Amino acid sequence: MEQQDSILKGKYPAKAHCIKVASYLQSKANASANSVIYLEGQQTILIEDNDEPRPFRQRRPFFYLSGCSLPDCHLIYEFSTTTLTLFIPDLNPDSVIWSGLPLLPAEALKKYDVDACLPNSALGSYIASLTERGPTAIQAYVLGPPSDALHFKPPPDDKHLRAAFDECRVTKDPYEIALLRQANTVSTSAHAAVLRAIPTARNEQDLEAIFIAACISAGAKHQAYHGIFGSGENAATLHYQHNDQPLSGRKNILVDAGAEWECYCSDVTRTIPLTGQFDGESRAIYNLVLAMQNAVFARLKAGVQWETLHLRAHEVAVAGLLELGILKGGTVEELMETRVSVAFFPHGLGHYLGMDTHDTGGNPAQAERDSMFRYLRIRGEIPEGGVVTVEPGVYFCRFIVEPWLKDGEKGRYIDEGVLERFWGVGGVRIE
After folding, report:
1. One-letter-per-residue 3-state SS of 173-189
2. Cα distances (angstroms) measured from residue 38 to each of 228, 319, 320
3. How many CB atoms lie within 10 A of CB 337?
4. What tens digit of pLDDT does each residue of 227-260 get?
5. I want to staple 235 with a disulfide (CB 3.0 to 4.6 A). Which of 230, 332, 336, 411 is the partner?
6. DSSP tag of 275
């Protein structure tokens, strides 16, 4: 914890990220040393038919190269000089009356890992000066077409920068890992607050409110994603969104929620007995999911093939469901071939984690036909420095399982009588 705090006292390593992305472009897109990266941050957008702005969320590529979470900003990184220039909104006296003084260029220089900070009004002339510096043309790399008012010659390349970000963001540096740890520290505290509140909570939304309040109180004003607070059979819906059902008469609640810390995400899931103790069926499924996770942890290391870990989790699931009597009619190996476990564990094992909850670089196979791998968000080897979630689960979702029961060929592998005892478990996920 002390090392984490020490790291976060420094500046976000924007320049190092610029160099990393530029190196990728030079090696993969043959970018010349005379190239630049130009990015626009998220602009202020008003709510339709209203004078209030939409909730602000900085564009992740922009934050990655600047560490700046202010709206209406721009940046330019020059390969030849490794110069990073941040452009921030001009001082607007009318805005100051309502919102107070904004961050000024001198303050931004101290706060961010940039070489220069200029007002947005200087952006056009700065770009013009780039294109006039010498006989060699400046190639600009952008994400989407820049504003019509900005003239790059030749036209900017908007084809290669996205891939550069997707790959470079996969491996994290110590500062990024410290941010992820801080997000997890806040989320851990918030999950504990939910656990303490369960005896007096009456509705899923009570627990969601407690989680969000605990995060904000700890300094994390934004959630990494819309939290899932699914009680009873609602827990069988993977991304349950309503969070508004009464808790009375239900066995368990699945809480999948995480705070965001300075644009970096956490992703934590726990399944909790609402009565203080799991009943027999819930305990059996919880122990099975925990065994699935531990089996993956035992093999997880840099260079491992993610698909093999996913298969291992399914093997443990099949063995456990066979032992409980929910599955029948074959050995583990034979049942793995039928893909019956997908009816109970339909999603992928996990995903990369970073500035997005489902972070970049997983290279999922969009046209995958094998049901066991259809929803894998990561394909291939896990690199050194990658951050992944491991989130196996077992669910009793009627929408998924009942078609198997009605299919004469598939249904023979599921014991419907035993299954009947488990519907109330809903779903168990540990992440």
Report:
1. CHHHHHHHHHHHHHHHH
2. 37, 53, 53
3. 9
4. 999 999 999 999 999 999 999 999 999 999 999 9
5. 230
6. T
C-alpha angle 158-164-166 in degrees, rounded to nearest 5:
110
- 163-167-168 Cα angle (round to 5): 115
> Is pLDDT above 90 for 173?
yes
Sign of the CA dihedral running 17, 21, 22, 26: positive
- What is the 3-class SS of 361-426, one letter each residue? CCCCCCCCCCCCCCCCCCCCECCCCECECCCCEEECCHHHHHHHHHCHHHHCCECHHHHHHHHHHC
In tens, the pLDDT along 332-378 reads 999 999 999 999 999 999 999 999 999 999 999 888 999 999 999 99
Contact present, 10 and 188 (Cβ < 8 Å): no
Cα(141)–Cα(156) distance, rounded to whole angstroms?
A: 6
8-state DSSP, 262: T
Specify the DSSP class assigned to residue 274: T
Within 8 A by CB and 6+ apart from 306, the residues are 349, 376, 378, 379, 380, 381, 382, 388
Residue 118 token pair = 């200029």
Sign, CA dihedral 229-233-236-238, equals negative
